[in-house]
Amino acid sequence: MNPAVERPERLISDAPVDDSALPFAVEPLDVRGRLVRLGPALDAILARHAYPEPVSRLLAEAAVLTTMLGTALKARGRLQLQTRSDGPVHMLVVDFDAPDRLRAYAQFDSDRLAAQDDTSGAALLGRGHLALTIDHGDAASRWQGVVALDGQGLSAAAHHYFAQSEQIPTFVKLAVGELLTAEGRHWRAGGLMVQHLPSHPTRMADLDPGDAPAGFVADVADDNEPWNEALALAGTVGDDELVEPGLSGERLLYRLFHERGVKVFPAQGVRDQCRCTQEGVEAMLRGFSAGERAEMVNADGRIDVTCAFCSTLRVFDPADFA
Question: Which pLDDT tens digit goes with each residue over 4-40?
């Protein structure tokens, strides 16, 4: 066998894999990215909370975006996405604990939501900010990036974040859908993130020196042809393709980038799991004063604590803290 002859690439897998992030690279275009598909894990999170449909859709988008970023963590740690805004959905919180644990919840105003005609993500969020926090377990390694929510959805906010905080040309597409089965309706979501490699930055347009004649329009065309081509190809992906349960991630990436060749890496699984524990909640309660705990006692003479993320109810006897 001639050692100079390369072995053919393996066949594309048509086996769909839910609850995973599939890293990939299109080397001729100097781009890398992640394809996220969420199914049963997302459905379990949203079914547990039973939010109104617009809230569930928005939280599903946030879960996909967080998974995209969280699965890229190089070491064990936590990535949290949190929004605070003046819209009907005034807070979203999604935690990704590396390597694979996902949890999420939302806070919203029921009356304002019922009166809201526009249920797009931009309208539900309104104005405020989105914060992304990476925590590796010690104060020295904690990092946070904040971008404004100025009447735009999560995809636009993600583009703003990458342009402002990481200065990496990035394309982000998020999609949410429902699968109808004999057992009922099930939530699904998907997302595609494509990034230009930092070692090949796009050329910025030259600034107008201020002495151009009236009516002169400077040439601000971006001559980075590989990135422009990558954007054009990624932009053809449809919402239905991102959430289609029968379409494998590898097949979708081949559809988008087969002309240039796409390399995929091992998929990273995602699961629905909260970090709260009986011991952890008890330790939190012990951190309050006796007077503060006394105010928590309900009519049944007990302290009830419900986790905002997983909705687990834990019951405590006040006498245990005496």
Answer: 444 446 789 999 999 999 999 999 999 999 999 999 9
| Cα–Cα nearest to 308, from 112, 13, 91, 114 | 91
Q: How far is CA 226 from CA 12, 31, 193, 258, in A?
A: 24, 9, 16, 15
In Å, what is the CA distance from 9 to each residue of 121, 261, 262, 264, 299?
41, 10, 11, 11, 67
Q: Amino acid identity of 245?
A: P
User: For residue 232, what are its two tokens?
Assistant: 């054009």
Structure confidence by residue, pLDDT tens digits, 205-245: 333 344 444 444 444 345 589 999 999 999 999 999 999 99
Partners of 264 in the beta sheet?
24
Residue ranges per structural domain of the chain: 20-200+226-272, 278-321
Residues facing 189 on adjacent strands: 38, 176
Q: Is the pLDDT of residue 189 over 90?
A: yes
In the chain, the DSSP E strands lie at 20-26, 31-38, 78-85, 91-97, 101-107, 127-135, 143-150, 170-181, 184-196, 263-264, 268-269, 271-272, 303-306, 313-316
Q: Which residues contact 112 (CB under 8 A, 6 or more apart)?
A: 88
CA 119 to chain CA mean position, Å: 19
> Is 278-321 a domain of CATH 3.30.830.10?
no
Reading phi first (left if > 0) and then psi (alpha if -120 to 50, else beta), residue 12 is in beta
Length of the chain in terms of residues written: 322
Residues 6+ apart with CB under 8 A from 20: 36, 37, 249, 267, 268, 269, 270
| Region 20-200+226-272: CATH code | 3.55.30.10
Distance CA(79)–CA(321), nearest Å, equals 33
